[in-house]
Amino acid sequence: MATSTYFGCYGTFNSPEREQGVRLMSADSLVGDELEYAVQHAEGKTKVVLSNRFGGEIGTLDAKTGHDVQLCQAKGWVVHVLLASVYMKQKGEDGRASHWGEVVVLAYAPSAAAAFDVFTGNIARMLGEGLRPEVDLLDSSVSQVLDSGGEWLPNGRRAAVSKDGNVLVKGQLGFNDKLVKQARKRNPGCLVAGWAFIALLVFLAVYLVKLLFGL
Predict the structure, then answer these.
(1) What is the dihedral sign for C-alpha 167, 173, 179, 180?
(2) Neighbours of 113 (CB within 10 A)
(3) Cα(88)–Cα(64) distance, rounded to whole angstroms?
(4) CA–CA distance, 193 with 195 (Å, rounded to integer)
(5) What angle do CA 198, 205, 23 make, to 5 degrees?
(6) Which of 61, 67, 84, 145 is packed most tightly, with the most Cβ within 10 A?
(7) Phi and psi angles of residue 143, each rounded to the nearest 5 degrees, phi first
(8) Can you list the positions of beta strands (E) in 6-154?
(9) SS (H, E, C) 198-209
(10) Per residue in 6-29, pLDDT tens?
């Protein structure tokens, strides 16, 4: 539901190309990440293409969500697109699996940015925790966001997508994902912990090989 100040929705995107799927499955595309988007025109059609935070293309928004993004842009609003989930489709007739996913779109008037910038960060955090907050807000809820400086959060939850032949492969941040996010912030403590964890895995692998083969 769009108000005079805010718009929020869930949308989907498709990633039919193998390279797009590889980028989606990598640590460059984490649940809760803000995605880049670009409106492209080709052969009389318009589409909104998504890229991860490092500029790697990951897919194309569905037509309705892409239209909503363009409308908000035309209003001069601030628009954020957050990665909410990633799914893998079972192999098709060509023998290849493909990917698709969900995003959360949050858009608001620049005059409301002080509160909704904070709100957006909190929604991204919730997505990373595996929560799916309802972002289609009534006017009364928008007022609560503004009055709280962005700290108010919706209690409602959006049900997970359930489609036959699809497997959820990213729905929240795992342990390694959290280490990656901390490393992006150049947190020395988490970098050390991450390398220590990797070293432990290597040690355990070597130990098991010696145990099994008597080396």
Answers:
(1) positive
(2) 14
(3) 22
(4) 6
(5) 50
(6) 84
(7) -65, -35
(8) 6-15, 34-42, 45-51, 57-61, 78-89, 98-108
(9) HHHHHHHHHHHH
(10) 999 999 999 999 999 999 999 999
Full-model pTM:
0.83
CA distance 88 to 185: 29
d(CA 128, CA 131): 7
Q: What is the DSSP letter of 110?
A: G
Specify burial of residue 165 (Cβ count, 10 A radius: 0-12, 13-18, 19+). exposed
Cα–Cα distance for residue pair 48/70, rounded to 1 Å: 8
For residue 208, pLDDT over 80 is answered with no
d(CA 142, CA 154): 10
Q: Please say whether the beta carbons of 21 and 57 come within 8 A.
A: no
Q: Which of 39, 82, 106, 66 is nearest to 172 (CA)?
A: 82
Alpha-carbon distance of 176 to 190, in angstroms, equals 10
